[in-house]
Amino acid sequence: MLGRRTDLHIFDAGSVNGTRYCNEILLPYVRLFRGAMALQFLFMDDNAPCHRTVAAEQFLESEDIERMVWQARSPDLNPIEHVWDFLCRRLAARTLPPVTIREL
């Protein structure tokens, strides 16, 4: 994470709700990274429903984590959407689709 990247986190089967998002992403990754970055930290997510739950909002507030504000339903303004677009195009261009998580 402090080397500017993390391993891809893959959720086990089931839906990702606010509780899972807090327990599997915010607690182990975001909290740690925020602690390492101190005042330079500004958290960016998107408007996915699990990101906007009361549990997620309360967690970020309790950890004093500032969230970058994004307009609702504006993927063109969110830089991560460009990354997803690039990834989708790269996957579509492959002769054979990835079969394992490691290949993906």
TrEMBL record:
Gene3D superfamilies for this protein: Ribonuclease H-like superfamily/Ribonuclease H
Pfam families: DDE_3
GO molecular function: nucleic acid binding
Signal peptide coordinates: none
Domain Tc1-like transposase DDE: start-end pairs: 42-94
InterPro entries per UniProt: RNaseH_sf, Tc1-like_DDE_dom
Protein name stated in the entry: Transposable element Tc3 transposase
Species this protein is from: Trichonephila clavipes (Golden silk orbweaver)
Lineage, opening ranks: Eukaryota, Metazoa, Ecdysozoa, Arthropoda, Chelicerata
Gene: X975_06522
